[in-house]
Amino acid sequence: MTTTTAPATAPDQASTPSAISLRGLRKHYGSVRALDGLDLEIGAGEIVALLGPNGAGKSTAMEMLVGLATPDAGEVSVLGTDPATATRIGLIGTMLQAGALLPDQSVRSMLRMLHSLQAHPMPLAEVIAQADIEGIITRKMGALSGGQAQRVRFAIALLGDPQVLLLDEPTVGMDVGARRAFWDQMRGVASTGRTVVFATHHLDEAEREAGRVIVMDRGRVVADGTGAEISAAVSGRVISLRGLTPAQVAALPGVDSADADETDARRVRALCTDSDAALAALFTGPLAGQAQDVLVSAPGLEEAFVRITDHHHEETPR
Description:
This protein is of the alpha/beta class. It has helices spanning 58-65, 83-88, 107-115, 124-131, 146-158, 176-190, 203-209, 227-232, 246-250, 275-284, 301-308; strands at 20-29, 32-42, 47-51, 73-78, 92-95, 164-168, 195-199, 212-217, 220-225, 237-242, 255-261, 264-272, 292-297. Helix content is 30%, strand content 27%. Strands 5-6-7-3-8-9 form a six-stranded mixed beta sheet, sandwiched between helices. Strands 11-12-10-13 form a four-stranded antiparallel beta sheet.
């Protein structure tokens, strides 16, 4: 393993070209290849969504950024220092999906305890306001809903006043309203110039909230750009319609895949390699007259993600 090191003091950000630098990272768990030469540079102040199917290596990369795992080869740097030091002196704050919470403690007492351990803490009142947890501050941790617990984990990530925030599935367990409220708060946090990296399975969040989207697969980066740039790299068209089943649509010529629309179960969305052939079959073939409300559009980030990562894994990294 090779890591860059620096004194245990906050680096001069003006001389630090990257907030996060991962170079040539490799990690094996037995015969399983979790990271395969991962290279990634993220600049200070960027808001980045990290996407990838289960087993893409996202969790392993995040663990390395906070010093919970070490690479077999490669270099890891956070604001010019090694991950363990960055975590210890509060340069990086982490919101892990499975971060343990003490069920018998109140939110306030737990935050006070953790606040006292920080090298350069953010004022506790500011943490509470930024995480929007004033209404639950007196409640026991074990009595919180999934979404409320996530907001407390976010508050914990802010305690050290970090310059880099690493969020693993930050809105898991939240309903649509809570997700929107969380991102309203997050925009305020990001506006202070912090670097924010978040992993999510909600592709609409990635497309809406991130200035940059990075797609990982099989332990390396397979796409990197804005949501629009990644979507534009995928050829074909999307056909959306009612009146037919996904199986009927999938059998049409020129259709690559077809599934029920997640936002409207009555509609089917089909990714087409030849939309002209598919439309001709819809309107002149045996299914003529059955399709309703037919819409044709360019692929979005969801279709691009599916196309980029569509394969059968021979191995299953973490």
